[in-house]
């Protein structure tokens, strides 16, 4: 059963919790992290770079406007392939399993 940790396991700006959640996602094949309400760019970029197949886009709407959440991902220095994974492919893979 897929487990998706909202807010990348921390809320808000809980750096230690983000790092612990990322270790869980790396260690367990069915643990994923979503990006809702995560605005620390260096945390997002590090997580996606370290584990691009385990990160799922989330906006936390209506609390955060979706366009703000989208721009927090599109402005990162990550590959277009990793952006595709985060925005679409990872969730599609989970839903199809």
Features:
4 helices; 97 residues; mainly alpha; 3 strands
Give a verbal description of the structure.
The chain is mainly alpha-helical and 97 residues long. The protein has four helices and three strands. Strands 1-2-3 form a three-stranded parallel β-sheet. The radius of gyration is 12 Å and the shape is globular. The N and C termini lie close together (9 Å). 27% of the residues are buried.
In short:
The protein is mainly α and 97 residues long.
Secondary structure layout plus pairing:
Layout: E1 3-5, H1 15-27, E2 31-34, H2 41-50, E3 55-56, H3 66-74, H4 80-96
Parallel strand pairs: 1-2, 2-3
Distance, first to last CA: 9 Å
Radius of gyration: 12 Å
Please state the structural category. Answer: mainly alpha
Overall mean pLDDT? 94
In the predicted model, the low-confidence regions spanning at least 5 consecutive residues are none
What is the helix fraction of residues, given as a range? 40-55%
Order of helices and strands: EHEHEHH
Instruction: Count every beta strand, where a strand is a DSSP E run of 2 or more residues.
Output: 3
Largest sheet: 3 strands, parallel
């Amino acid at each position: 059963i897929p487990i998706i940790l909202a807010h990348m396991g921390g809320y808000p700006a809980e750096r230690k919790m983000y790092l612990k959640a990322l270790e869980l996602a790396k260690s367990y094949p069915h643990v994923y992290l979503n990006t809702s309400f995560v605005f620390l760019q260096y945390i997002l970029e590090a997580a996606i770079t370290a584990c691009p197949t385990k990160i799922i886009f989330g906006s936390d709407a209506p609390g955060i406007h979706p366009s703000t959440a989208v721009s927090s991902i599109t402005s990162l220095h990550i590959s277009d392939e990793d952006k595709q994974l985060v925005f679409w492919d990872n969730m599609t893979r989970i839903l199809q399993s």
